[in-house]
From TrEMBL:
Source organism of the structure: Chitinophaga solisilvae
SUPFAM superfamilies the UniProt entry points to: TPR-like (SSF48452)
Domain (RagB/SusD) ranges: 266-506
Family of this protein: Belongs to the SusD family.
Protein name in the entry: RagB/SusD family nutrient uptake outer membrane protein
Keyword Cell cycle attributed: no
Domain SusD-like N-terminal: 102-227
Subcellular location as annotated: Cell outer membrane
Amino acid sequence: MNKKIFKILSIAAGIAFTSACNKKLDVVPEGTPTVAFFWKTDKDVIAGINACYQPFDDENFYGRGYFWFIDASDDMIVGRSKAEGEYIKNFNPSFIGGSYTEGQWDLRFNVIKRANDVLRNAPAIQMDQALKNRYLGEAYFLSGLMYFQLAYNYADDRAGIPIASKYNPTQGQVVPRAKNVTENYDSVIVDLKNAARLLPYFDSYTTDQYGHAHKTAAFAYLAKTYLYKKDYANAEAYADSVILSGKHELLKQFADVFTISNNWSKEYIWSAYSTAAGKSGWGSILPGVMLENTGWGKYNGWGYYTPTRELYEEYEAADGRREATILKPGDKVKYFGDTIVYQSSNSNSGYQFRKYMEPFGYSNPIGIYLSPNGDHPATALNPPLMRFAEVLLIKAEARIMQGKNADNEINAVRKRAGIGPKTNATLADLKHERRCELAGEWADRHRDLVRWGDAKNAYARPLHGVDPTKVVWPARNFDPAIHHVWPVPQRVIDASGGTYKQNSGW
């Protein structure tokens, strides 16, 4: 994805996309082109697929809103006072109807609707077949990824996520929720297999195509979907599809993963494409959200999602990932061209995530590395959503759960971290590596704790900051029968006219 996409997004985003969802849930801007005048040429297909990516610029997509769900883990706290975020972290239903997470459902179904429109209309258009296949593959990938994210957040054995018809939508009809999350995962798997069949490898793309879906991204999310489904043999097999492709490898230095120059390295598999270009930048605002509140007077950092002492102490003493992941008082870091000594006047834990600090390190970074608009603090760094290290750990977990040895995969990430190998690594070792390797990322520690059955015990313990004697977040009551999924947004329930019921207990 590059500047060419942004020139077309404002047009493409206005297409009147159709779906099987209730018309009240559709987002159709007034005065925009209708389907009758669209879907005629290859340019329309290009505009349609580019429009699928447009919602990623919403600050709550891969920025503040969605990350509140991840903030529920024991790795971080809200950071500074924010009532809605505090309710979410405490599993208090008072956040239902609030602004941050209320839109997550609609944002993802918006992408699904646009992807379905491509899948429904592009096949009949005469154009280069290889390009058509790629665009169809992208649409399948984005549909599968969106359903995956919706399913593991909102669906369980009692009720799934609505699955809209890709090819024969019925206008004005509310699609009922799927029977259960397994039904959703099965649908995701079909989408991602179609994507993997149609998509090229990333290394066939030219730089102007970077940011578009590719084959190993589909393989990687197939592996993760099968892992969540507890189909460990297939999780291992699709992780191997990535590993044995020869297209990916770990970077030599862990800290280098989180640098602009390595946005598209061999460790990259999928990320939240971001840029500082334009009046407000574009893409994920997570780096700015995690930056010190008001950025020590130089940039509008928001000061949320600050690490805990429990996370800091999880690392082994020689583990190089700790200092690359977390800033503590007294650490030196580059900021606006100067080397400063980190200290915080707002962080409730006293720590800050370091992983996303590189764009703030340059001299005169605004407009080049940082968005000129601090109210939309996108940067030139693409926060990883899936990277090769996680694929190795998916394979390791899948092998351990099958009673197999996973030392090769676990020791690959440990070797890069500068720590010794494990022999006959256990599930506890795997959990440790996922926490240390992927802290502060979209891999989602909260979801890990839930699916492992560890959340209740983990959240029953208070959290601490730099001062080990001070509780910065009290113990919480996590009920596995309720809080294993998040509540369906109230606006979605209301718009369904009573068809959708709230997740049990919420």
